Amino acid sequence: YLPHWNWNCLTTDSQSEKSAVWIMALSRLSSRSNIISRPLSAAFRRSISTDTTPITIETSLPFTAHLCDPPSRSVESSTQELLSFFRTMALMRRMEIAADSLYKAKLIRGFCHLYDGQEAVAIGMEAAITKKDAIITAYRDHCIFLGRGGSLYEVFAELMGRQDGCSRGKGGSMHFYKKDSSFYGGHGIVGAQVPLGCGIAFAQKYSKEEAVTFAMYGDGAANQGQLFEALNISALWDLPSILVCENNHYGMGTAEWRAAKSPSYYKRGDYVPGLKVDGMDAFAVKQACKFAKEHALKNGPIILEMDTYRYHGHSMSDPGSTYRTRDEISGVRQERDPIERIKKLVLSHDLATEKELKDMEKEIRKEVDDAIAKAKDCPMPEPSELFTNVYVKGFGTESFGADRKEVKAALP
Amino acid sequence: MAARIHGGAGAGAATALSTFNPKKLVAPSRTNLPARSSKRCIVAAAGSDASKSLRVGHSQKLIANAAVATKAETSATTGTGHELLLFEALQEGLEEEMDRDPHVCVMGEDVGHYGGSYKVTKGLADKFGDLRVLDTPICENAFTGMGIGAAMTGLRPVIEGMNMGFLLLAFNQISNNCGMLHYTSGGQFTIPVVIRGPGGVGRQLGAEHSQRLESYFQSIPGIQMVACSTPYNAKGLMKAAIRSENPVILFEHVLLYNLKEKIPDEEYICNLEEAEMVRPGEHITILTYSRMRYHVMQAAKTLVNKGYDPEVIDIRSLKPFDLYTIGNSVKKTHRDVPTPYAGTLEEWTVVQPAQIVTAVEQLCQ
Q1: Range(s) of chain B covered by CATH 3.40.50.920
Q2: CB of A143 closer than 8 Å to CB of A99
Q3: Of A182, A206, B50, B195, which sits 20 to 30 A from B182 (CA to CA)?
């Protein structure tokens, strides 16, 4: 691999001509319009593009709108954003797959709901908002927690029930919270987080912060009554709440057409505007969330329906293939996978080579493995932790186990 | 020997103690009045003898001032107070807290423009505006959830259930989110919410509107429950509940709203975790709360005439129980009769004073 400046010095006799052509071809392959002359040492490994010119990307599908004007399909982005999308989504994917293996190794117990396939929703949403905007979601919360700034170590420690987990080991897979990034969890009861989310939006309006709340739920939860109750109040009081339906088409084992008479979840708000978004396209999600935030701050609630898909079953106890065919899963994986889409965009814009992306993925794998190893070393919570944080401030009352002999503690 | 009295099984404790010698009396120096050791609240005078207080250490840890130990009939004030009805006392407490802290807001059905179905929030909407006194549509599940969500960010909503029975619709939110969020988030979020509402048997309100839900809520970890019975403790408990960082459920009773009493002009708070000694006695301890207090006091009159000396404690704090006061009292009398509202509540029976008298007599034989 000759450095490309050499080709100027070559002679033009026939043999050298061939080599000149060869070298020219090589250099053309390797040169990028944004890379100027490089020192020899750096030519070994071309680094990933650091171009700052904005890139415009068209979303794969147009938006479908209900009672509002859909936003444009052209999304402004940048090299940095594209690469960070790729990196973070690959991290999320790897994390979920690692959680899968940990569950099968019985290091994670109880419930474990995996988000792989749906990463674009988490990533696109984060790109459109700030840490002051609140997100609340149900139990499929690992990746959203990561997107909000959580660390891999906290995730794995919490999943394995260790002290250093984000909820100190007391929450588990379904109860990730991060107060400083306005991530309100992490809820096990289907649909109960939507009124909570509208309450957070109410508090944001009350305190006059110019922020919005994204209350996320699934297509199964979309049939909960409390959702419509909360939507009614939000519309009545003009709350800055955005209801995001992550429609992965299955409510555990029940397909959406078997559970909902009207599976157009974005229209279900009736008087509340809605937008249907391709949830496997991170840029569509980003555009929609940006649009929704502007809308909610001015006009009150809006519903976003993210058309997405999960590769795993509902949870680790569900194989995921009894109610859908493997062909369907692999079909979606081939055609609509969010990471593949970003990869293609990165490659077509020449921001990095295949090899670089593969290297990135290797790095990510190592990062995840390191975090798991560190989390495995973390100790379990102390037995006294059983009784802390039950109340904010204890009363000198006692709490005891069933026989009142074995476990007894004075609440601090 | 301290009595193990835990939620819903006071009757068990009673039977366990019935083997004690009823003639055994404990020396009279009692310790029923806590120390007044807080910064801004008034000290209410005691109704009867106030001996030394053993509760100094305990109450110093707690938020605020202690309860008054009086008989239900006499009012307890130092200097002039003002007379008002129980619902007005609640309203005063609420208004003072809303004045004091802009984070306090009220939400419930018809609390705003209508003034509240029992007039507890009368006038507040005019004073504080629609964003602080919120009329909600009829969706208990959702607005309780919203109150809890708002509390997660730092607001202090007071959620009113028009009737405690309606709060059953919000039971999921109260149990799973309100009670448990502080624990499952590892302490990240506090839920300083107050859920209040009238419950209990009214005058022919029908079965669905006459429920007492204490026993259902007893099993939820993480929430505090208090029941008010007089205008004095209604205002005090309301204020304390709003200031508490824990979620508090304040039980009121429909028939007690029109009770009149003179309460102090100055600001005061009642301790959320403390029981109130209504009538000190020697022979037997009767635990009661809310409306039954009045039935018990009536029965006490009869008992006194018959020669017994009952000690009546209004437990006020249903969760956690004030084991200290109750324990001391039972230690002294070695006998206690929980009235049904303090015991299991699966089936409600409104106990008449005569029944209480009979029960006491049986126990004292």
Answers
A1: 276-364
A2: no
A3: A206
Q: Which residue of B has its CA nearest to A187?
A: B177
Query: What pLDDT is stored for residue A112 in this prediction?
Result: 92
- Spatial separation of the C-alpha atoms in residues B86 and B70, rounded to whole Å: 17
Taking each helix axis as running N to C, give the angle between helix A152-159 and helix A354-377, from 0 to 180 degrees, rounded to the nearest 10.
Answer: 50
d(CA B337, CA A264): 60
DSSP A382: P
Q: Would you name the residues of B annotated as active-site residues?
A: 140, 209
Residue pair B276/B316 in contact by the 8 Å Cβ criterion: yes
Name the maximum alpha-carbon separation found in chain B: 61
Token digits of residue B230: 């007089």
Interface of A with B in 353-412 (CB under 8 A): 388-393, 395-398, 404, 411
User: What secondary structure does DSSP assign to B261-286, as a single string?
Assistant: EEEESS-----TT--EEEE--SSEEE
Q: Are residues A304 and A245 in contact, defined by beta-carbon separation less than 8 angstroms?
A: yes
Say whether A391 and B323 touch across the interface (CB within 8 A).
Answer: no
Considering the entire predicted model, what is its pTM? Answer: 0.76
Q: Which runs of consecutive H residues, i.e. helices, occur in chain B?
A: 10-17, 56-61, 86-100, 124-128, 140-153, 171-172, 181-184, 214-218, 231-243, 292-305, 323-333, 353-364
Average pLDDT, chain B: 72
pLDDT at A396: 52
* Measured CA distances, A405 to A248, B164, B224, B315 (Å): 48, 35, 24, 26
Interface of A with B in 9-68 (CB under 8 A): none
d(CA A310, CA A256): 14
DSSP secondary structure letters along B55-67: -HHHHHHSSSPPP
Nearest one of B285, B349, B289 to B319, comparing CA atoms? B289
Q: Cα separation of A68 and A403, whole Å?
A: 61
List, by residue range, all CATH 3.40.50.970 domains of chain B.
81-264
Which CATH code, of 3.40.50.920, 3.10.150.10, 3.30.70.100, 3.40.50.1000, is assigned to B276-364? 3.40.50.920
**To which residue do tokens 């020899």 refer?**
A40
By DSSP bridging, strand B310-314 and strand B284-288 are parallel
pLDDT tens for residues B127-139? 999 889 999 998 9
Q: What is the ipTM of this complex?
A: 0.74
DSSP A183: B
Q: Are B289 and B314 in contact (CB under 8 A)?
A: yes
Q: Which of B105, B143, B182 sits opposite A392 (nearest CB)?
A: B182
Q: Inform me whether the pLDDT recorded for A227 exceeds 90.
A: yes
Using the CB atoms, write b or e for B327-340: b if 16+ within 10 Å. bbbbebbbbbbbbb
- A43-52 burial code (b ≥16 CB/10 A, e <16): eeebebbebe
How many CB atoms neighbour CB B8 within 10 A?
Answer: 18
Chain A residues with beta carbon closer than 8 angstroms to that of B324: 396
A293 phi/psi in degrees, rounded to 5: -65, -45
To 5 degrees, how large is the angle CA A125–CA A336–CA A117? 55
Instruction: Quote the minimal CA–CA distance from B220 to chain A in Å.
Output: 10
What is the token pair recorded at A209?
């912060």
Give the containing element (helix H, strand E) for A148. Answer: none
Interface contact B35, partner A, CB < 8 A: no
CATH topology for B81-264 is Rossmann fold (3.40.50)
B284-288 and B336-338 as β-strands: parallel, antiparallel, unpaired? parallel
Tell me the DSSP string of B31-81: --------SSPPPPPPSS-----S-HHHHHHSSSPPPP---SSS---SS-E
Least CB-CB distance to A200: which of B4, B153, B177?
A: B153
